[in-house]
Amino acid sequence: TSALWVEEQLAADRDIILEIDWQGAQQVRRLVPDTRAIFIAPPSRAALEERLNSRGQDDANTIATRMSQAVEEMSHYVESDYLVINEVFDRALAELRAIVMAERQHTARQEAIHGQLLQELLS
Questions:
Q1: pTM score of the predicted model
Q2: How far apart are CA 8 and CA 21, in angstroms?
Q3: Averaged pLDDT for residues 34-63
Q4: CA 74, CA 40: separation in Å to the nearest integer?
Q5: Could you report the per-residue pLDDT of 96-105, keeping only the tens digit for each?
Q6: Which of 5, 38, 79, 87 allows an S-S link to 43, with CB 3.0 to 4.6 Å?
Q7: Residue from 85, 107, 89, 88 nearest 38 by CA
Q8: Model confidence at 34, in pLDDT bands (50, 70, 90)?
Q9: Separation CA 78–CA 59 (nearest Å)
């Protein structure tokens, strides 16, 4: 993802969701410190393995490698601001939407959007 594109989207007050690993999240946080990280985890290792198998894209060795990499990846959930367990897709989607809506209501963001209104209300 282009840094210029990200800057343009942020300047236009658009929400951006990047699907990245923990190393990418660390890089983004260094470049844009006020970002929020949402870690989406499977409900179990068995469910993750079943999802990988049901795709029908990888052989058994590739899936075993991906499973061992997933354990390392999941150990970094503590670096995130939010944690969503993707057991039931519709519930996980609702939780993700709730996080985005809550972030949009932060006082600093609302002040930037409604500064004039707030000044009028207080004068």
A1: 0.83
A2: 23
A3: 93
A4: 9
A5: 999 999 999 9
A6: 87
A7: 85
A8: confident
A9: 31
**Dihedral, CA atoms, 115, 5, 81, 34, nearest 10 degrees?**
-50
Own/partner contacts of 108-117, CB < 8 Å, gap of 24 or more, are 113/13
Q: 31 or 93: which carries more pLDDT confidence?
A: 93
Please state, in angstroms and rounded to a whole number, the distance separating the CA atoms of residues 119 and 114.
9
Amino acid type, 72? E
DSSP of the chain? --HHHHHHHHHTT--------HHHHHHHHHHSTT---EEEE-S-HHHHHHHHHHHT-S-HHHHHHHHHHHHHHHTTGGGSSEEEE-SSHHHHHHHHHHHHHHHHT-HHHHHHHHHHHHHHHH-
Instruction: Note whether 99 and 36 are within 8 A (CB).
Output: yes
Average pLDDT, the chain: 93
